[in-house]
Amino acid sequence: MRLLAAAALLSTTCSRLYTPRLFPPRPEPPLPPLTKEACDRQARDERRARQYSNTTCAPLVDGGCATSCCRTGAEEDTARARRWVAARSYIVASLATSDPACAARATVENLLAHTTDVLVVVHRGCGSERFTLSDARVVLNPVCVPTRRAYGSLLHAHLRNVLYAKTTFSKPPTHVLLTAANLYWIAPGVESYIRAVGSSVYGAPRVAPPATHPPDLDPDWASIVRRLPSEGALQQKHEGSFYPWAAAAHMVHTIDLNRLNHRSCFCGGFCIEEYYLPNLFYLLEKDRFPSGIDAACYARANPDLRPGYCVDGECDARGLRRHWDDFGRCEGRPVACPPTTMESPTLKARVTVFYNVFAKATGAAAAIVAEQMSQLREAPLWPFIEEVRYATIGPDAAVAAEVAKHCTDVTCVHLGHDAAGSELNSLEPLHAYCVQNPEASVAYLHDKGSFHESPRNARLRRVLLRGLASRPCAAAITAPSACDVCSSRFAVTPHQHTSGNMWLARCSYVQRLHAPRDFRRRMELHYGRKKGGEAWPLGTWRFAYEHWVHSHPSLRACDVLDHEFQEGYGNLPPTDFEISFALAPRYNRGHAFFAAATAFRGRPAAFSLDDRIPEMEREWRALYNATPPPLSRLRTYYGGRACVAPAPAAGGGRRDDFLFA
User: Fold this and answer.
1) Residue pLDDT, tens place only, 321-346
2) How many CA atoms lie within 13 A of 72 on its CB side?
3) pTM exceeding the 0.85 threshold for the entire prediction
4) What is the 3 state secondary structure string of 7-36?
């Protein structure tokens, strides 16, 4: 089997969809007669053309395949796929392959292994060896066309896949990805990448089309060229390109599919078919290309805009575009406004609070519980809370009754009482709950200060609860956003954690983590058994429970504290600190708080962020056999990719590899 080459996706920006009517609408091409003779004739014509054609510029056959598509003999059962797409937001991957069955199966399995929200629609060229797959995320298009490079037939096959998905699934996908047998996936993360970027066309270079194919030879191409605003056209290979679904479905009806298979090619490395979609998409979105951004939505979603991009609180489109080019792209910030089909923000999302209550003295613990429940009731998070599940620990089991006193207006569930215990008493049930309820959200808090009563413990306790129960945290975690864990402060030093360990999180993220008890064991296997001052800088021993929720390489953290405080008790903020939401880590090089944010307490004086980078990479690989995805802020922060966009590489493209560098 031939060696498969790794492919990269190209893009530079994202935009909301506008679809003006560029051409008179065409009816969907009719399916050809379902006769065995038509299929046999088409297969013979294809074999004859491949045997005797010595030039890539000749028609596939002498007009014989211009309109003769055929159906495969097997009727694909799509019931499982329909159930799968109905339950989620998904992306369609269109695969056109005429490889032998074993190679085609390997291509599909490779794509499935590196994705979770992708449905694969497979087109097999007529005459290809049949193959079947039983996965619910794969369907075989029963309509086939003969395919060969440089004849328009590959585009024909991909658009047939789009038509098949459109007619088969009542719930549409968000995007369509065109893939091929020569794409070999080497890491997960493509779904997040596609949704953040929008379309690969935004990164396509503009070139002068070869003169060997005048526009008047192709009416569809001539219609596109006449509408382009300048000399030259966007150039893009099919493999790895992606589009918003509504745009792809619209573009299908602007191209005469029945003529695709007898077009001639440019004979210059690119074929006419590979100019259609990027330039047609450009025309559909041309009003968005000059700014590439919805300024109002971007400003609302990014209140931490760096100085110099907004003046006196006013942000114009040019300044925001420059900010996204410099920082937003590589940090993975979405630029499009939320779709109008999103659920109303007034709908309550499910939030379950897991509350760990330790009572060294019942009276002191009861006072802290009363304070925290009162603070929680007055917080913006309270309307989202459906249930409080609490575990109690201590010599006196009567503390459970003290908690129950505050459950008059909310459902409470006692997880049990132990004379001795730890945060595991609540974190283990929290993780199990998320595994069973990935669509839910969870809050974790505890009665900090009940073991060591002190003014600084009381202050930190109030700061932590104010943050996780704030309006921005509630909005970020209970609705679609670019954040998975929200707290007052996310710190990367000395390990990734929230000092004091109180936070709000999505279960869809938490379920990816190892169970807390198992996580501590894995950390000790990786770093060795350490305690006290040796364990704190690494996040092992009992400190593993603080590190746990922020330990996965796919973490998307956010926080609401713009203050020099990072960890411990030094320089604590006031308990009524101003809420200032930002994706985290929020302080980059050059910021006044960057030095505090990268001060590794408990390490040698010369230890820096640069020394921590290889440690984190080894830890991620040891724990999860993965590293941060391409658009991760962690990837940027730890040096995976510079945050200022590099100059375009030779040929106009920019490579975003899928491996942590």
Assistant:
1) 666 666 665 555 665 544 333 333 33
2) 22
3) no
4) CCCCCCCCCCCCCCCCCCCCCCCCCCCCCH
